[in-house]
């Protein structure tokens, strides 16, 4: 086994990338949990408030992923461990690409669904987000299915992503997990 590499600036993510990563992780897990909770609530003021919060968080997630992508395109990530197989490298790149794709597609599908169902999103109750579609109940229902399915695919990928990070840490003994953790103060 290779000894654990010494962490240096060059093999760590930037503080901005780390912060965006963990903020998105918390937001995605929270959005998923709230989505499951609100799905079968009876129509009430509480349900409407939860839906508003969910939509606000979804818009925020969309904005954050755009910031995250901009950061990612202007700041190279640390290299993958040298002992990773080519297959594992390809899987890592595909997995990350799918995560980004879904972090964009899910809020867009929610926005399209809300538009088709005739429920405009008003960000934080202040900024109206324009509808992308005219009201169409059948399309709204189809988009709800798309939105739900994409969310379950995302959660499966998030679980796989976390599992891979733990595998790297506990079995491969490399720095893949620790370079995405905030720096510890000594």
Automatic annotation (TrEMBL):
InterPro entries assigned: Cyt_b561_bac/Ni-Hgenase, Cytochrome_b561_oxidase, Di-haem_cyt_TM
Gene Ontology CC terms, in alphabetical order: plasma membrane
A family per Pfam: Ni_hydr_CYTB
Domain Cytochrome b561 bacterial/Ni-hydrogenase: 12-182
Family indicated by similarity: Belongs to the cytochrome b561 family.
PANTHER family: CYTOCHROME B561, CYTOCHROME B561 HOMOLOG 2
Protein name: Cytochrome B561
Organism: Methylotenera versatilis (strain 301)
Lineage: Bacteria, Pseudomonadati, Pseudomonadota, Betaproteobacteria, Nitrosomonadales
